[in-house]
Write a structure and sequence with these properties.
5-stranded mixed beta sheet; single chain; 12 helices; 3-stranded mixed beta sheet; 429 residues; alpha/beta; disordered C terminus; elongated
Length: 429
Amino acid sequence: MYSSNQQMPIRPNVLSVQVPSTMNYVGLNDSSNVARDGVENGTFSQAESLVNPSKKLENDMLLLGKKIKHHEENIKYLRNHKNSFDDAITDMQVTLGKYHSSTGPKIEDEDLSHMQSEEATVGNIMKHENSAAAIWCQLKRHRNQAGHMKDVLGVVATLGKVNDDHLSGLLSEYLGLDNMLALVCMTYDGLKSLESYDKEGSINKNSGLHGLGASMGQTLDGRFNVICLEHVRPYVGEFMPNDPQRRLALRKPALPNGESPAGFIGFAVNMIQIDSAHLYYLTADGNGLRETLFYTLFSRLQVYKTRTDMLQSLPCIFNGAISLDGGMIRSNGVYYLHTRTKEMDVKFAISSGVSYLPENYMEVEKQMKELKWKREKLMEDIQREEAMLAHVKYNFEVKKQEFLGFMAQSSPYTMPYPMPATQARLTPR
């Protein structure tokens, strides 16, 4: 024991706190040694409370820094790929543009009947003046207004063609006028652009198709069907090999004895001619109109030569059937008897059946559609990476402020360095 007049010896090992040098914070002695005596007795509990939290915050910041670098590298990689897609798409557009500029007038002259058939279809739609389909067709003639609904493809009747006028009438009758006049949207956003509602749930007549129709002096009257490709259940299976129309490789019907039914011509979904621009990559999954829209409308509807052939094939008909002489069976067992007394006015246009396209045109257009689809996916990935990068940077700044605040608050708990013995003796009591 020492008396009050005796001076206590100064211990050579005095507590000092060591902050990791990687952070390089000014004002702390990184070279000092942590005292080892008395740790077991809890003498340096304050040191532990200081070092451990700071180390944890430092590790958190290092981890976030690695994540920032990872997201930045991902964004750079994705943007490089997007740029390569942009270059390839531009080259393909130039190739297709040269073809159109050199052969466009020839198609217009030689395929005049084909164009008139399309105009006749649109003209018959316009006769239903107050329908959504008629208003849409009117908007298409004013392209600047139709541009407000970029995800709306058009009217069912205008999105497919068939090779025979009689078959066109049968297929149109099977679908019915409401479906033939239905609007088709690629996404749910496109559907929402057609009609909006106020807080009470009433239709806002100043927006969407209602507002655009009113601006042209047309009033939308009654309900109308809209088919959203994003929400339909598409065909899942193979396609016919080397078929530019991407017809579905559906299994042909067979009778219980294994034989093919007499008079079977084919499936209605494969008898629709689809514009090349609508064969690929209309949905986020890369599907086209045949496996989405027309498979939804027709499913596996079978087509037979005669009503007799159709009725004899009942054991292998599960999704309905029609015959060229007017027979019709719905998938739920509903039979349509007698014959048509009135021709459907809204029908599919008639395809010329003649192609003036060069052999590689369809392939180039397909590749371009695929690249555009992949580019859109890349843009979504880039946006997602940028959002995650912004989130990680925000978290980094939060941790940084926590660390700086912690170090500032911890300074009073750091024990002072010992005074030299000579200075201690000179200090007045």
